[in-house]
Amino acid sequence: MSRKSASPSASPDVFKMLPAERKAAGWLASIYALRMFGMFMILPVFSLHAVGMPGGDNLSLVGLAMGIYGLAQACMQIPLGWASDKLGRKPIIIGGLLLFAAGCWLGYVAETVEQLVWARALQGAGAISAALSALLADVTRDEVRSKGMAMIGASIGVTFALSLVFSPVLYKFFGLSGLFAITGVLSILGIGVVIWLLPTPNLADQEAKLKGSFRDGWAVLTQPDLLRLNLGIFTLHLTQMSLFVVVPSLLLSGLELPLAEHWKVYLPVVLGSFVLMVPLMVWSEKKAKTKQVKLGAIGLMGLVMLGLVLFAEQGWVLVSMLLAYFVGFNLLEATLPSWVSRVAPLSHRGLALGVYNTSQALGLFAGGALGGLAFRHLGAQGVFEGVLLLVVVWFLLAMGIKALPPRSASVAPVSEPVGNPVSHS
Questions:
Q1: 287 and 146, same structural domain?
Q2: Are the beta carbons of 125 and 103 closer than 8 angstroms?
Q3: Residue 37's closest CA among 179, 226, 188?
Q4: Same domain, yes or no, for 147 and 243?
Q5: What angle do CA 268, 327, 21 make, to 5 degrees?
Q6: Tens of pLDDT, residues 47-87
Q7: What are the E-state strand segments in 96-233?
Q8: Phi, psi (rounded to 5 degrees) for 11
């Protein structure tokens, strides 16, 4: 089927998701949500529970149990992303969910902190984010891919907020082992979604994927724009983790809000940020202003950090800054992986997203470690000043990124789960 060029003046229908695309993005978002809800539920209570277990007096071991998930993710994203290019997306996603479920089972039966370390490592080894993102890229057109990524980002954001509400309640009734069990059940449900509800890519250029050269793979690691995008997601998640090292204590002191009630800030902030972010993203897609909006989002985050340096002690200013931060954060979270999928060679799209997700995981790890170190020695203001410096460097490097090439208004390469091709005239 022929491809038609899409320009900023193209018909608005070009930028609307087809029913098959919307369904595919929705089911992929549900897999993210099922998996992440269980993970997020465990985090608020994990360290408090672990210190009461054998080995819990070793705080370094408790910290390792918390952080090794991200380290395992960083190690496995690239090989599993590459494997999804060669073996197919669905087998890798199912295998990753099985590994994750195995880690949940080990966490359910764990009796020591050392066993929890192994459980968290096994959970992290099921690193399927790259394969999921690559599958979304496979089954959506360029024009609507950021909308699909935004649906996934929204599911993660809402899931995070809801987990803060439900985690203490479920922990009270079921304990940490019960939360691991619930997480494992949710991951098994995710496997059912993959097998019976997710569409299967039906790419006309499958032969091109199989003929990908070594040069294409090397380009994933050395292409300047991909390096900028990987640096961007690293910095984005470093800022997130650094903020959440500091923000809980500021909410306690600035708003005198008990820890159990912090969700009353996080939930409206996260939901409000999506309400403000979506129109910006849609406008940038329709007007082909993705680069300008990306730079604007980075600039907004820089202004937020400057505001926190100056006014973080004022409680309601802090809340306003968090809202602005999450507008920029969610906008970048939704658009950066779509950008990667368009810049990367088609034959190595999974590998490129694997490198991207590895950068993300390393950012989470570095943000937690460096943010905690800076908070301990320099205080909250030192954390904000350090993050501000990193965001400024990111902004300057991002200015050199090339604008995306013109989009092609092509048919979404997707088939229904039963194999019926989707057509669009």
A1: no
A2: yes
A3: 179
A4: no
A5: 95
A6: 678 778 898 887 677 767 777 887 888 889 889 988 888 88
A7: 200-201
A8: -55, 140
